[in-house]
Each structure stands twice: as structure tokens, then as C-alpha cells.
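Supplementary Methods, section 5.1.

A reviewer requested that the exact input to the structure prediction be made available. We therefore reproduce it here, unchanged from the version used in the analyses.
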Amino acid sequence: MIERSAGILLHPTSLPGRFGIGDLGYEAYNFINFLEAAGQKIWQVFPLGPTGYGDSPYQTFSAFAGNPLLVSPDLLVQDGLLQGKDLEGIPDFSPREIDYGRVINYKFSLLRKAFKNYSKTRREALEKEFAQFSKAHKNWLDDYALFMAVKDFHKGRVWAEWPEDIAFRKRAAIKEWTEKLEQDVSFYKFIQFFFFRQWMALRDYAHERGIKIIGDLPIFIAYDSVDLWANKSQFSVDRKGKLLTVAGVPPDYFSETGQLWGNPLYKWDEMEKDDYEWWRKRFSTLLEMVDVIRIDHFRGFDAYWEIPGDAPTAITGKWIKGPGAKFFKTIIKYLGELPIIAEDLGVITKSVEKLRDQFNFPGIKVLQFAFGTGQETRFLPHNIVKNCVVHTGSHDNDTTRGFFEKASKDRSSDIYEFTQKYINYYGSVDYITHALIKAAYASVADMVVIPMQDMLNLGSEARMNYPGRLGGNWTWRFTWDQAPYEVAPFYKDLTVLYERPPKPKQDVEIEVH
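The structure derived from this sequence is encoded cell-by-cell as follows.
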């Protein structure tokens, strides 16, 4: 899939920039330049969809669409759809934290102005390109644009609270609302056109520099999404749209009561009838955008935790068998071999491992889990296998520096002492992150992908997500002053030292006498 290599995990929202949130503009290109200078061959991102309640990229309005907040105003100026004066008077956004409420209001005002200018100018070449995009993505774009337009009309309310005719997609209502909200529907298509246009250009720039992109595919969809609204028969809701069962995970090291995600579950028997067509479209659309797909919560294809729709916690759930190997065999039959990474963390059984290994999907190892309270030895570097991706931490963990700073102060725990012995590091806690990263690089794992927070040796203030906490997540951004000049050469040297990528094989000449 990918040769022995190293990379960085950074979501585009965390990029620097003056618009309150990272985007696909100039700073994204600067980041790719940084990747190249640091010898990195991988850029891993979270799901790229339009975020809803809680701002989580794992809870989006669409499994196919892109996040409008990632569209670059600078590039819209470059395309002549905004003027330089439109970007004067930018609000005083924090450079290191996203205020989603203010950012959404500001960026959508710019996007609507750009759409208005587009509608006035009628540029033939751009119109032709837009029409081609709309036709190529019609199978999801029409429903998405209408869903968002109707949602706006109803002040953001969840689709189940709309008038019944459009909530349950009566044919006459679809026609009526499409005509009634024609401009708004076109606006949402316009945003997607420019998101994909900007993303594809950025992807091509990465490819020119030998950098591949790992995208993220959450196994479940959000209740308040076009995916459910347009495909109710394939999800666990009744005829009135009420959730019958929801997704989550049982009690684990993150929560004593488990995690109640609240996502609708799939009616796998129903999906099998058309050879998982919705899933085939989902995979093929994402593979247009990225080189490798990380499936979040891969174990759900083997068995998933089914929780009653009205349950207050995840404790009352039960394991239900998933579609397993027949699902992937069907997808492969249509799309060919899939470049998939299986996120196989949490409660993993032999059958999950068998499913992963049957298709030779790399799994994931998180080094913090090896040194944490549970001290799961399968994550220790000497137990790591070749066909996997190694991370120091994940988006649900504290940063590695924050993790060890807390561990070093905990007198009742031997976590820090054990870590020092294992990685043979007895220096300041300030630099233990670098020692752990070196252990990851030195491992036999084909891929090492380090969160940007750990690359920059940042503390708990840079944590991305607190599982189970409502609000205040996904807000972290970095600034270039946090990346000293020596960072890129330091990691470039590590890639050379630990052969990521491997040194080219040299032909050995044998002298014959």
C-alpha cells in the first residue's frame, strides 16, 4: 500500500491562517512544503465533511460533501469571485483556537458574497466546470444541497422537525422545495464545487512532492444528516424517523458507562440487496480525494455495539454480528483492491483480527496505550508488527507531552518510571516526546504517523478532543512560531536514520576472475 514511511496527522482546520480556522489556501501549501522538508511522505487528516452539532468531523451533515469552512477566501480572490477589499476588516480571531460560531457567520458571509458575484459575472469557462462537477457528483450532490437549503429555511432544525411532506421526501415536496429554494440549493452546490476544486489542486500539489494523503471514513453517519434523510430504509429508524437503536461502545478506558454515540445503525440485510451501493459510492467518492482510507471503528464490520434508541448510557447495549467478509468481498468486486487502514483499537476479538488480516489491512498501534494505566503490552514497540500504522497518540488522547507530564507527577503510578526504563530516556520530561517518536520511527511498522502536536512537543493545551465532553473540542490550531527552524531537519534526519522511506537497493558488482 505504502512503503516504509513517516507522516504527520493534522486536520486542515488546525492550519494557521487569518480567517479563524485553517483552510485549503496558502497555509495548506506551506504545510505540504513543511512535510517535504521534513522528509514526510504521508499527510493524514480527519473526515473532511461539513460538521454539525459539536463541530466534530465524525458527526457530519453528509458522508460525501466537503466542509464549507475549509474553502479558502484567498483562493476565491484569486479566482476573481471576491475582491481584496472583501477581506478587509477580518474579525480578531484567535490564532490558536477556533471559535466556531463566529467563524461560521464570517465565512458564510464571504461564501454568499462569492456566490452572488459568480451569479452576476456568468464566466463561461467556470460555469462549464461547475456544470461538469454537478453532473459527476449528482448521485449525492442534489440531495445534499436540497437538505442544507431546507435546513437553513427551518433555522437549522433537525430534519425530523420539518413539515412531514419534506421530512419524509414526498415526491411532490421534493419538486416544490427544490423550486422554492432554487438559489439556496445552487449556493450549496457552488460551495461543494469550490471545496472539491481547491482540495483536488492541493492533493495534486502533495502528489507532485511524493506525499500521499490518508483520509478518514467514520463507520457511522449522523442522525441529522442527508444520508439518513435520503436513505431512511437503510438505517435503524422507524416510519416516523425515531431511532430504534444507536451506535456506541461498551465501557472502556475512556468511560465507565461506555460511549453513547447516538448514530443510527445500518440495516445490513437491506443494504446487501443492492450489493451495498451506498457504500460503494462512499468509497469511490472518498478515493477521488485521498490515496488511502482509514476506517474508523473498523471492528463494527465484524460486530457492533447495539444500544436501544432511548437508552441513557451505553451500558445496556449488546454485540450484534456485522456483515463481515462478504461486505468487503462485494466492494472489492466492484472497485478492486482497496487501500484501507483498519482502526482496530478498543475491544478487539480474534474474529476482528481475522477479518482485518483476511484482506491484509494494516491495523493501528498507539504507543500511549502501551505506557498508560492499562499498559497494554500489544502496543509496546517490540510487539509491533510490520503491517501497521504507529501513532504516539490519537485525537482522543492527551498530547504525549501532556500525558507524561501528568504521569511524572503521579506518585501512585509507575507509568513514568516504566517508560523511562523501556525507552532508555532519563532526561527532562520536556523532551520525552522526542524519545517516544524515535522509538516509533525505529520500529518495524511500515507507517509511522505522528500527530502534529507531538511533532511540535506541545502540552495539554493542544489536545484535540475529550471523549464524552460536550463542546470545546476540535478547536486546536498551530502557528508557525511553534515550529522552530530545526524541526524539519530533525525529522528529516530521523527518516534517513530509520529508512523511511528505505534506501534504494544498490546493485552489487561481483568481479569474476
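The chain has a mean pLDDT of 95. These observations are discussed further in the main text.
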